[in-house]
C-alpha cells in the first residue's frame, strides 16, 4: 500500500470512531436526563469521554486537511494512528453498550427495579474501567492532536466538533451550575443564563432548552418548548422563559430527549442549499451531523451499526443507500409537542401577520416565538405561507416553532406549494422530517393536477427525501400528475438501481401501468436499463404482460435486456415475427440471442416479412450468413422470394450463397424478367449463365424478359436477350413485335429475328395507332400488308384518319399505296367526315384526290349521306364538285339524300343536291 492509501485507511477509521462518539454523546445525554439516580463517577466519565472526542476530532480535522492539500504523513505514523483509532473505537463500543443497557433499564419501569438494584452492586467497577481505558486512549493520542492543533489552529478544529459533543458539553455545564437546585420541583433557572462551550474563544454560544427533549414514543404536551440556539458572533443569546413555566433540573428525570431537537441548531449564516439546517459546528469533509429524524425506540440503544443498516446514520446521506431493509416509522401527530398561546386577543391583525413573515425572513426565531406566543396565528393564510417561508430560509428552529404553535403541515400556498413540497424543492431534509412527525402527508398533492411531495422527490431523484418519505408511509403506487407511476417516472429520470430496489422493497407494483399503458418493465427496457429490468423481474414483474406491447418487442432493441427476459420466462411464441424485427433494426446481437433461445429463423412478421429477406433488403451480410447457418430456408417467401429479393435490391453478392444453400432459381419462374424489370443487367447475365431460361414467363403478368425489355424500352436488354436465345415468337403479356412498334429502334432489331412478321395480324394498324411512322416503314419493308387490319376491322388508313395523323395518312396514300375506298370500321372518306373539324379539310381533300368515292355506300352510309346528315353545305359542295352526286343512293333506312334533306327541312342542302352534277 502507498502512503496515501495508509492515510486514507486511517482517516476512515478515525471518522468511524468520531461518528460513533457523536452518537454516544447523544446516548449519554439521554441517560443523564432519564436516570432517576446518577452513578458515582458518571460526570467524570462524561468529561473523560469528551476529552477523547475532542482529541479525535482534532486529529480527524488534521488528516482531512492533509488529504485535501495532497500531503502525506509517514507510513509508520499513519499505521500507529490507525492502531490507536481502532483502540478508541473499541473503547467507544464498550461505553455505548453500557449506556444502551443502562438506558434500557431506566425505561423498563418498575419491573426492572430489582435488575437495577442488582447491577448497582457492580457498576462501581464498570465506570472506573471505562475511565481508565479512555484515559489511556487520551494519553496515547494527545501528542498527535497537539501536532495538528499547532498546524491547523484551534478555529479549524472547533469547526469539526460534532453536535452531540456540543450538546453534551453544554448539558453537563448546565447540570453542574444547577446542581444546587437538584431535586427541587419548583425551582427556576436564573434569568438570562447561558451556556458556553468548553472552548469559548470563538464566541459560539449554545442554549439548550432541556425541557423540550421528548421521546417520540412517550411525548408529553409541554407548556413550553425551547429549541437549541447558537450564535457565531456577538454576546450569547439569553435563555429566557416566563416564570410561570420555567423548567427545573429535576424535571429532566421524567422526560426523554428528542433526538431531532439535539441534532440541529440554527446559526445566522449565509443560506446554502443543504439537506440539513445550519448548526453550531461547520460541517467537515465527512458531514458529521446527527440523524434528521427520530429513529424508532429500539434503535436508541442499538449503536451506530443499526443506524447504518437502516440508512439513518450520517454516512448514508453521502454514500449509496442500501435499500435491502424496509423501515416504517409510525406517526402519531397527537403526541407531538403543542403550545397554546398565552394570549390571542387582537393578535390576528394584518400588521402582526406581516411582522411574523418579516421575522421569519430575517431568521429571528426569538421574535417569531414572541409573536406566536402573543397569539399571531401560525396559519396566516395562503398568500403569506409562514411554514413555506421558514423552509425557504432553511430555518429549522422556526419551522418547529410554527408547528409547535399549530401550523398546518399540509396546507398549501396560493401557488400550490405545500410545506413538504417546499422542503423537497429546497433540499431541506430536516424540515421534512419534523413535518412528517407533525402529520404532513407525503402522498397528498398540494392541489389538483399537481404532484405529491413524494412524487416531486422521485422526479428529482432525491435519495434522501425518497427514503425519508418511504419510512413515513409514502404510497409507492400513486400516480403522478402526468399519469405516470412512481416507478415509470423514476426510470424515465434515469435514476440509480438502488432507488428502484428501494421503491420495490417498499411494495411498488412492478406491473403497474401508467395512463399510457406502459409498465415499469417496458420503460426500463426502452431505456436500456438491464439492471432495472433484472430488479423488476426479481420483484415479480411479468415479462409476458403487454405494457402496452409484449416486452420482447422493445427488448429487441436492447440485446442485453432481451437475453435477461428470455432467461426469465418471456415467451417468444407470443411475439411471432420478433426475429424479423431484430433483423430489420440491424441488431445482430438480438438475432443471436433469439436464435440461441430457439426462435424460428423463418417466422414471418405480420404474415409477410421473413428475417432472411429483410437481411437481404438491408444488405446485412453478417445477419444473412448467420440466419442461413442457423437453418433459414432460402425458398420461404416474404413479399418476394429471397432470390428475387437479391435481384430487386441489387444484392447479387448473396445469390451464390443462397443457391448453394438450396435457393431455387426456377421456381417460381420469372426471376430473369424481374432482373430486366429492375434494370439489373449484372443479375440478368448471372442468371442466364446459371441456367435460367430467357423465355420464362412471370406467373402473374405472363411477361417474358423480352417483352418486359420492350415495354420498358431497354434496347440493350433486348440485344442481350436475343443474343442469349430469347425467342421473339414467344408471347409475353403481348406479342413482342406488337409491343415493339412503339419503339422503332427495338422493332428494327426484332424484325430480322422473326420468320414471318406478317403472321402477326394488326401490327401495321398498331404502328399507325402509336403514331410511329418509322415503325410503319419498317413493317412495310418487312413485307407487312398496308391493309393489314387489326381484329379484322381497323385498317391502318382509317386508324390514321381517326387519330388525325396527317403525315401517316399522306404516307399511306402516297407511298404505301393504301386504297382510299377500302373500308376499315368505316369507309376512309366517311371516317374523315366524322373526324372533320372545320375549317380543316386537308384529309378529306387527300382522300378525294386519291380517288375516294363519296357516293360509295358501306354499311348504309356514304360520304354524301354523311354530309347531308351533318348539314354542312361547304362539305357537300366539295364532295359534289369532285365526284358529282348519286341521287338514287339510299341509306340503311332506305332514304335517298334528297329525302333525308327534306325530312330535316334543309332546303339549302336539297337545292345543292338537285343542282349538283350527276355522278358518272
TrEMBL record:
Entry keyword set: ANK repeat, Repeat
InterPro entries attached to this UniProt entry: Ankyrin_rpt (IPR002110), Ankyrin_rpt-contain_sf (IPR036770)
SMART domains given in the database record: ANK (SM00248)
Statement: the UniProt record of this protein carries the keyword Lipid biosynthesis: no
Protein name: Uncharacterized protein
Recorded superkingdom: Eukaryota
Bias (Polar residues): 217-234, 279-291
First and last residues of every ANK repeat: 382-414, 415-447, 516-548, 607-639, 701-733
Record field: compositional bias (Low complexity): 180-193
Region of interest called Disordered, as start-end residue ranges on this chain: 177-202, 217-243, 255-317
GO cellular component: cytoplasm
Pfam families according to UniProt: Ank_2, Ank_4
Coiled-coil blocks: none
Transmembrane domains' residue ranges: none
Gene3D superfamilies given in the database record: Ankyrin repeat-containing domain
Amino acid at each position: 500500500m502507498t502512503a496515501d492509501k495508509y492515510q486514507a485507511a486511517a482517516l476512515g477509521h478515525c471518522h468511524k470512531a468520531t461518528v460513533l462518539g457523536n452518537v454516544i454523546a447523544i446516548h449519554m445525554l439521554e441517560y443523564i436526563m432519564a436516570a432517576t439516580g446518577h452513578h458515582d463517577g458518571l460526570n467524570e466519565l462524561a468529561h473523560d469521554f469528551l476529552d477523547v472526542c475532542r482529541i479525535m476530532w482534532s486529529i480527524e480535522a488534521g488528516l482531512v486537511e492533509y488529504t485535501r492539500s495532497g500531503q502525506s504523513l509517514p507510513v509508520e505514523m499513519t499505521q500507529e494512528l490507525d492502531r490507536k483509532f481502532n483502540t478508541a473505537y473499541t473503547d467507544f463500543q464498550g461505553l455505548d453498550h453500557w449506556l444502551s443497557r443502562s438506558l434500557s433499564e431506566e425505561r423498563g419501569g418498575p419491573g426492572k427495579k430489582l435488575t437495577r438494584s442488582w447491577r448497582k452492586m457492580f457498576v462501581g467497577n464498570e465506570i472506573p474501567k471505562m475511565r481508565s481505558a479512555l484515559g489511556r486512549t487520551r494519553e496515547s493520542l494527545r501528542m498527535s492532536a497537539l501536532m495538528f492543533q499547532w498546524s491547523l489552529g484551534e478555529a479549524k478544529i472547533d469547526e469539526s466538533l460534532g453536535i452531540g459533543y456540543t450538546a453534551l458539553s453544554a448539558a453537563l455545564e448546565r447540570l453542574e451550575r444547577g446542581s444546587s437546585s437538584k431535586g427541587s420541583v419548583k425551582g427556576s433557572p436564573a434569568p438570562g443564563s447561558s451556556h458556553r462551550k468548553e472552548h469559548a474563544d470563538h464566541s459560539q454560544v449554545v442554549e439548550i432548552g432541556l425541557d423540550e427533549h421528548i421521546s417520540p414514543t412517550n411525548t408529553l404536551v409541554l407548556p413550553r418548548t425551547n429549541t437549541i440556539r447558537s450564535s457565531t458572533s456577538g454576546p450569547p443569546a439569553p435563555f429566557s422563559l416566563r416564570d410561570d413555566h420555567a423548567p427545573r433540573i429535576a424535571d429532566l428525570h421524567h422526560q426523554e430527549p428528542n433526538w431531532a431537537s439535539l441534532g440541529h441548531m440554527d446559526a445566522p449564516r449565509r443560506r446554502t442549499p443543504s439537506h440539513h439546517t445550519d448548526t453550531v459546528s461547520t460541517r467537515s469533509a465527512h458531514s458529521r451531523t446527527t440523524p434528521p429524524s427520530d429513529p424508532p425506540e429500539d434503535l436508541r440503544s442499538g449503536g451506530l451499526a443499526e443506524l447504518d443498516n437502516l440508512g439513518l446514520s450520517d454516512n448514508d446521506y453521502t454514500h449509496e443507500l442500501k435499500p435491502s431493509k424496509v423501515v416504517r416509522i409510525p406517526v402519531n401527530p397527537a403526541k407531538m409537542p403543542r403550545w397554546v398561546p398565552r394570549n390571542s386577543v387582537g393578535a390576528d391583525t394584518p400588521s402582526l401577520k406581516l411582522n411574523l413573515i418579516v421575522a421569519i425572513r430575517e431568521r429571528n426565531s426569538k421574535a417569531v416565538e414572541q409573536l406566536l406566543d402573543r397569539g399571531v396565528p401560525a396559519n396566516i393564510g395562503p398568500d403569506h405561507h409562514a411554514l413555506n417561508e421558514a423552509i425557504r430560509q432553511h430555518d429549522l428552529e422556526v419551522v418547529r416553532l410554527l408547528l409547535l404553535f399549530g401550523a398546518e403541515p399540509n396546507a398549501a400556498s396560493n401557488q400550490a406549494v405545500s410545506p413538504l413540497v417546499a422542503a423537497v424543492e429546497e433540499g431541506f431534509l430536516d424540515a421534512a422530517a419534523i413535518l412528517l412527525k407533525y402529520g404532513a402527508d407525503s402522498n397528498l398533492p398540494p392541489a389538483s393536477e399537481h404532484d405529491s411531495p413524494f412524487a416531486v422527490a422521485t422526479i428529482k431523484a432525491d435519495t434522501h427525501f425518497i427514503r425519508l418519505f418511504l419510512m413515513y408511509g409514502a404510497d409507492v403506487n400513486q400516480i403522478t400528475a402526468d399519469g405516470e407511476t412512481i416507478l415509470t417516472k423514476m426510470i424515465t429520470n434515469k435514476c440509480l438501481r438502488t432507488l428502484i430496489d428501494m421503491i420495490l422493497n417498499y411494495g411498488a407494483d412492478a406491473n403497474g401501468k401508467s395512463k399510457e399503458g406502459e409498465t415499469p418493465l417496458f420503460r426500463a427496457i426502452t431505456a436500456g436499463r438491464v439492471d432495472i429490468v433484472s430488479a423488476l423481474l426479481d420483484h415479480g414483474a411479468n415479462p409476458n404482460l403487454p405494457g402496452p406491447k409484449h416486452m420482447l418487442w422493445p427488448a429487441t432493441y436492447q440485446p442485453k435486456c432481451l437475453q435477461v427476459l428470455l432467461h426469465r420466462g418471456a415467451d417468444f411464441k407470443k411475439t411471432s415475427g420478433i426475429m424479423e424485427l431484430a433483423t430489420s433494426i440491424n441488431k445482430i446481437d438480438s438475432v443471436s440471442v433469439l436464435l440461441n433461445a430457439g426462435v424460428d429463423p423463418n417466422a414471418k412478421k405480420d404474415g409477410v416479412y421473413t428475417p432472411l429477406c429483410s437481411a437481404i433488403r438491408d444488405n446485412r451480410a453478417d445477419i444473412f450468413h448467420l440466419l442461413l447457418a442457423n437453418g433459414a430456408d432460402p425458398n420461404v417467401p416474404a413479399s418476394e422470394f429471397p432470390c428475387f429479393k437479391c435481384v430487386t435490391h441489387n444484392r447479387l453478392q448473396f445469390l451464390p450463397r443462397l443457391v448453394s444453400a438450396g435457393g431455387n432459381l426456377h421456381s417460381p419462374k420469372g426471376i430473369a424478367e424481374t432482373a430486366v424489370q429492375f434494370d439489373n443487367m449484372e443479375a440478368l447475365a448471372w442468371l442466364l449463365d446459371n441456367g435460367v431460361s430467357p423465355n420464362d414467363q412471370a406467373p402473374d403478368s405472363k411477361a417474358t424478359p423480352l417483352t418486359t425489355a420492350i415495354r420498358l424500352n431497354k434496347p440493350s436488354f433486348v440485344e442481350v436477350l436475343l443474343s442469349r436465345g430469347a425467342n421473339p415468337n414467344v408471347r409475353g403479356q403481348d406479342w413482342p413485335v406488337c409491343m415493339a412498334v412503339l419503339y422503332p429502334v427495338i422493332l428494327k432489331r426484332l424484325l430480322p429475328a422473326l420468320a414471318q412478321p406478317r403472321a402477326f395480324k394488326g401490327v401495321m394498324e398498331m404502328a399507325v395507332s402509336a403514331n410511329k411512322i418509322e415503325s410503319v416503314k419498317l413493317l412495310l419493308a418487312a413485307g407487312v400488308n398496308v391493309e393489314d387490319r387489326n381484329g379484322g376491322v381497323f385498317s391502318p388508313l382509317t386508324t390514321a384518319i381517326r387519330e388525325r395523323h396527317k403525315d401517316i395518312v399522306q404516307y399511306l396514300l402516297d407511298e404505301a399505296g393504301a386504297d382510299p375506298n377500302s373500308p376499315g370500321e368505316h369507309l376512309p372518306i366517311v371516317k374523315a367526315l366524322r373526324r372533320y373539324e372545320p375549317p380543316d379539310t386537308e384529309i378529306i381533300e387527300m382522300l378525294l384526290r386519291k380517288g375516294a368515292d363519296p357516293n360509295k355506300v358501306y354499311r348504309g352510309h356514304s360520304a354524301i349521306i354523311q354530309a347531308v346528315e351533318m348539314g354542312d353545305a361547304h362539305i357537300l359542295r366539295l364532295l359534289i364538285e369532285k365526284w358529282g352526286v348519286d341521287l338514287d343512293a339510299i341509306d340503311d333506312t332506305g332514304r335517298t339524300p334528297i329525302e333525308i334533306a327534306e325530312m330535316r327541312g334543309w332546303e339549302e342542302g336539297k337545292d345543292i343536291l338537285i343542282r349538283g352534277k350527276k355522278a358518272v
